[in-house]
Amino acid sequence: MQLSPGSNSKTYADRVDGKMSRHSRLSKSREFKKQRRDRKEQRSSKTKQLENREGKQYESGLGFR
Fold first, then answer.
1. What is the pTM of this model?
2. Which of 9, 31, 41, 52 has the CB geometry, 3.0–4.6 Å to 5, for a possible disulfide?
């Protein structure tokens, strides 16, 4: 068909490209990596606390006994 992209398609593509470049730039920053590491540590410590209190809940082959 060889139709040229309309103005809506161009603005959408520009907006998506902007989002991707912003996300890429942020994910490479030191602050973002530090926050991601801290959140992961918080999740793992919370999971350990709950498992110590309640026992294992999610594990492969756990089944009912």
1. 0.57
2. 9
Q: Do residues 32 and 26 touch, judged by C-beta distance below 8 A?
A: yes
Q: What radius of gyration, in Å, describes the C-alpha atoms of the chain?
A: 22
Q: What span, in angstroms and rounded, lies between the C-alpha atoms of 23 and 10?
A: 20
pLDDT at 43: 94
Task: Report the chain's terminal Cα–Cα distance, integer Å.
Answer: 64
Residue linked to tokens 């606390």: 49
Question: Is the pLDDT assigned to residue 65 strictly greater than 60?
Answer: no
Buried b (16+ CB within 10 A) or exposed e, 28-51: eeeeeeeeeeeeeeeeeeeeeeee
